[in-house]
Backbone:
């Protein structure tokens, strides 16, 4: 099992550009999550999906959109990137309160 | 009061030392807690769960004090490989967010030779 995979691993964007971060899990979990992690801020929840077909806002949703394409895949889209969105983005899936994280995407917006 | 609070450290200890981290939580209804470990530039991974008064796994012991609303993680006989950031985690138990987790900002541990 690959667990949780994320693409890309690194990305540099210019302000105003758009991009989609991809996430997939092969553990048949219902719940999936997108977090961002910044120095001194810890992990902050952007969006989550409790099951296929549903998505909900987390703590810091502004500037992002998500799509739960199917049970396996949960994507995060930045429509117009801003320097404040420079961060490390983690996708996770969860079963019984244990979250399994992907390796992260390091995004820099210049 | 923030939902999950941790001392950010860093804790710098020699190999073989015993080190303890504390974490306080605000939601008295929480029933289970977790410690995650995050290595530098890596993703967090579950280290231990705490569902009742405590849990022990080898050199690691997690304890829960419901009356004072804190969780502790004790590491005995520290190894160089224990160097990492340790995240205290509690579940959300309210509203539509049930099942989601709240992560503390983490405590950094550095074990020196």
Residues:
């Amino acid at each position: 099992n690959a667990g949780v995979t994320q693409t890309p691993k690194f990305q540099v964007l210019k302000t105003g550009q758009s991009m989609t971060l991809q996430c997939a899990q092969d553990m048949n979990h219902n719940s999936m999550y997108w977090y961002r992690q910044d120095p001194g801020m810890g992990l902050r929840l952007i969006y989550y999906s409790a099951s296929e077909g549903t998505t909900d806002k987390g703590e810091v949703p502004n500037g992002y959109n998500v799509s739960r394409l199917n049970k396996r895949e949960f994507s995060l889209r930045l429509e117009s990137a801003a320097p404040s969105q420079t961060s490390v983005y983690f996708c996770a899936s969860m079963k019984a309160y244990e979250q399994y994280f992907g390796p992260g995407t390091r995004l820099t917006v210049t | 009061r923030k939902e999950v609070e941790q001392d950010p450290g860093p804790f710098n200890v020699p190999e073989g030392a015993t080190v303890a981290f504390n974490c306080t939580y605000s939601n008295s209804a929480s029933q289970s807690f977790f410690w995650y470990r995050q290595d530098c530039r890596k993703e967090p991974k579950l280290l231990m769960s705490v569902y009742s008064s405590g849990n022990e796994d080898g050199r690691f012991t997690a304890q829960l004090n419901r009356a004072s609303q804190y969780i502790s993680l004790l590491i005995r006989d520290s190894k160089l490989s224990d160097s990492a950031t340790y995240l205290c985690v509690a579940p959300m138990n309210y509203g539509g967010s049930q099942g989601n987790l709240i992560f503390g900002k983490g405590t950094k541990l550095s074990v020196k030779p």
Q: What stands out?
A: Chain A has a mean pLDDT of 95. The CA atoms of residues 35 and 72 of chain A lie 17 Å apart.
